[in-house]
Amino acid sequence: MHSVFRPCGKIGPPEIPPVRKNRPIAPRRCAHPCVVDSLRTIRRQKGAAVRAVHTAIAATALASLLASCASDPVPGGSEAVVVLGAASTRVLNDEMRTLIDAPLTFNNAGSSTLVQQLREGAPGDVLITADQKNMDDAVRAGVARAPEIVATNSMVLVVPKGNPAGVRSADDLERDDVNFVMCDAQVPCGAVSQQLLRANSLDVHPVSLEHNVADTLGKVVSREADAAFVYRTDAAAADGDVDTVDIPHAAEFPNSLVAGVVTSSEHPGEAGELVHRLHSPQAREMWEQSGFTPAA
C-alpha cells in the first residue's frame, strides 16, 4: 500500500506563523525531501551573503586604517619631507621641525643602515650621516648629492648613574669584571671607538657590539653594561641615567655630521632648504644646546 504525500505549499522559504506570547517561533515542518533541500540551499545562500557583506566592511575598514598610517601629509596632499638621520641626531628631531615650514618625518638609525636602505629603494628626502665616510658611500652609490658638513661630535665614556662598577678611567675597561659595550665598527660611533682604543693602547673585549649609538647607550642606562663609548650629545641627553668620564684623545677624533639631499627626493626644494637651514643661526643654537659643535 502506497503512502500519499500531501504537499504543504510551494517550494521556497518556510512560512513563519504569527508571534505568540511566550511561545517560540518555529517554521512549518514539511517532510518532503525537495522541501528540505530547498531550505538548506536558502540558508547557505543567506550565510554566504552575510559573509560577503562582513568581508566588504572589513576590507573598507582596513583600507581606511592603512591610509591613516601613511606619512604625515603636507598641505596640498603631498607627503611630508622624510629625514633619514643618524641615530645620534634623534635628539634634534623636534628642533629640526622648526627650521622649515614643511612638516618633517624622521627615520633614525645607524648611518650605514640608512645608506643601505636608500640603496634598496627606501623613500627619503634628506640624509644626515654621523661621518663623512658613509655620506661618501651614499654619493658614490648615487643615492645622495650636495653633501655639507653641518656639525661635529665627540665621544665620552658613560657608566650607569652612581658608577656601580667603579670605572674611573678608560684604563679600567681592561678589567675582567667590567662589562664594556661599544658600537660595531661598521657604524661611525664604532669606527671612532676603535680609533680611541688604539690611541689609548687599550686591549678590551666588549661583551656586545651594537648597530647604533642609541642601543649602545641603552645597555648602560638599563645597567646591562658597566661602561660604553657614546657621543657626548647622547650622554647629555641621558644625564639623569648616566655619569660621564672623559676619554683621552677624544678631541683628536671628532665625528662630522654630514647632510645631503636624497637623489630620488620627491621634495628636492624643501630638502635643499632644510640642508641649507642646518647652517643658520637658529640651527647653530640648536646644535650647541644638544652638545654638538656647529660647523664653521
From TrEMBL:
NCBIfam families: modA. This is Molybdate ABC transporter substrate-binding protein. One of its GO terms (molecular function) is metal ion binding. The gene is modA. Residues 1-23 are annotated as: Disordered. InterPro entries: ModA (IPR005950), ModA/WtpA (IPR050682). Keywords: Metal-binding, Signal. Pfam families: SBP_bac_11 (PF13531).
